[in-house]
Amino acid sequence: MCGVVGGVSERNMVPIILEGLSRLEYRGYDSAGITVIGSSNKLARQRVTGRVEELAKICGNENFRGLCGIGHTRWATHGGVTIDNAHPHFSNDKIALVHNGIIENYAPIREELKAKGYEFKSETDTEVIVHLIHSLYVTNKNLLLSVKEATKQLHGAYAIGVMCVDNPDEMVCARLGAPLILGLGIGEMFFASDISALLPVTQKVVYLEDGDVAIITRAGYKVYDAHDKEIFRKPNISELSVTQTELNGYRHYMQKEIFEQPDAIAQTLQSLGNSFNTNVFGRDAGKIFKQIDQVQIIACGTSYNAGMVAKYWIEDFAGLECRVDIASEYRYSKPPKRPNTLIVSLSQSGETADTLASVKYAHELGMTNTLAICNVAESSLTRLSKLSILTQAGPEIGVASTKAFTTQLVVLLYLANTLAMTKGHLTSNDAEARIRQMRCLPQLIIDTLKLEEQLKLIAKEMEYKQHALFLGRNTLYPIAVEGSLKLKEISYIHAEAYAAGELKHGPLALIDKEMPAIILMPGNLLHDKVKSNVQEVLARQGVVYLFTDTEEDVTAKCHRVVKMPENIAEYLLPIIYTIPLQLLSYHTAITKGTDVDKPRNLAKSVTVE
Ligand code: AGP
Fold first, then answer.
1. Is residue 358 within 8 Å of 385, Cβ to Cβ?
2. What is the pTM of this model?
3. Which atom of ligand 1 is nearest to the CA of 400?
4. Any residues with Cβ below 6 Å from ligand 1, and which?
5. Whose CA is nearest to atom 10 of ligand 1?
C-alpha cells in the first residue's frame, strides 16, 4: 500500500510528481506529500491529510518547484492520519525520504537513534529509515553508501526513494518486498511504485529486484543487487498506454472496468489460443502437470473467491484433489509437504504481501511447482513463480476488483480443462466444445450488462438496508461470497454469503421482512435444492431478490426477479452471474454516495501483512 514516485529531471518535477501521485492514489489515499530540492538547495515540502487533489491545490505556488523531487500517497499503518505522519520525512533538513512498506524492527532502531540525539517528529516506522541514513551519511558523506548500509539493518518491507540537498542531481532508491520500478526518460530519470505513475512521461522501465539499491541521475542509472554487486537490469518497454489508465468518459473506474469485461475476456481468450495447451503456462508446464497429483490454490479477497470456484472445476474436470486457502492463513499453517502439488497463486496485482509470502513458504516446504495467475506482467508474484500466466484484463484501478476476477475465472477454467486433458479426462471432442462455449463469453456478458436498469432499481431499495444475505450453491456459492464482498466493500452494507444449504444451520434466524436475500438460482442440477431454500426464506417473510433463468411458481412470490440469459453452459454460470452482482454493488454505492473507486480504509494493493 502507499505509492511512491519521484525523479531527477531538466524540468520542474512538481507537476510530474502530482500526476504520478494521482495515478498511484489507488494504493492509499489517507494523506499525500511532496518534497523538492528548490533553487537555493533547500528541501521544500507540502503535505496534506486527504487526497492528492488537495495537495495539488497547495502546490500551485510558482516558487514551489525543483528539478529533483519525491512524492508519496499514504495508507496509514504506523501512526494516525496526520500531517506529521505524512511523507516525505526529513532528517536534519538534509535528507528526504518516501517509503512504502513496513519496518518491523523500527522500535530498537528508533531508540538507538534517539540516544544519538535524533528527534522524531512522527509516529511512523518510516522516520527511522531517514534518520538512520542520515546517521551513516554524517560519516561517509555518500548517499548511495548510506542507503546500502542502512537497508542492511532493516527488517520488513520497503520501497524507498531518498534525496539529499548536498547533491540535487542524484537520487537513491531501494526495494525489498515492495514493488519499485525505474522510469527512463531523455535527460531525466524517475522511480515509482508502478508503471501507471510514469506513463505520461515514459514507457521505458526497469523492474528492480528484491534487495536492489539503485542510484539515478539525469544521465542514467546504476543498480546494485542484494550482494552489493553492480548488475545490469534491462529496460523494458511497457505495452500500457496513458489512455488505458484514464476514465475515458466513464464516471468511475469500477464502472469502466465492469463494462470492459467483454473485451478483457476476449483478450484473455485470445491469449490462450484455440485448444487447451500446457505451453501457455510456461515451458515446463507439460512436464509439471503430468507429475502433480493435487492442486493447492492460494489467494486473498476476490482472488480467493475465484480460487473457490476453480476448486469445483478442477475436482470435477481433472479428478484432482484441490485445496483453496486464504494466503494469510496458509503462510502460517502446517500443510502436508507433498512435492507433487501444483501451487496456484491468484492475484490481480501480483504484489499482495500474504500471497507472495505463501508462495515463498510453499517453496521452503519443497513444493516448488508454482504457477502464478496474475494481471500484472513482471510483478513480484510472476517473477517468484516457476510458471506464470497473465490475465489480459488491462490495468484495474478501482479498488473493488471486477474484470480481474472474471478474467481469472476464464484462466482457471482453461487451467482445469488443461489439467483434465493432461490427466486423460477430456476427449478432444469435449475439449473443442468447451473452447467453443468459452468463446461465447464476451457476447453473453454484453447481454448480461443490459440488465443494468433493473439493478439500478434494486440498488435504490438497498440504500437504507443495514444487512444483506447472499445465497448460492456449488460454483454459485463463491459468486454469492464475491457479491457480498463487493457490496460491503463499496457501499458499507453488512453483507454475508452462505452456501444455500447452510441456511437451516443458523442464518435462517436472521430472516425477517427487513432482510434482503439475494439468491442465485440458475436452472442447473441443483436448481430444485435452491428453490427449496427460496421457499424457506419466503415462508419467514424474507425479501427475496432472485437471479434466475427459469420461470415458475416461486418467482411470483419473490420481491424482485432478475431474469438471467438462458441456455448457458453449467461451467460458464459463475462468470455470468458475477456481472449483475457487480452492477448491484456499483449502483448501491452510487445511490449511497460513497467513494466508489476509493472506499474508506481500503487500498487496491495490499503490500503489507
Ligand atoms: C476486491 O474487491 C478487493 N479489493 C480485494 O479483496 C483484493 O481482491 C485482494 O486484496 C487481493 O488482491 P490481489 O488480487 O491483487 O492479490
1. no
2. 0.89
3. 2
4. 300-303, 347-349, 352, 355, 399-401, 489, 605-606
5. 301
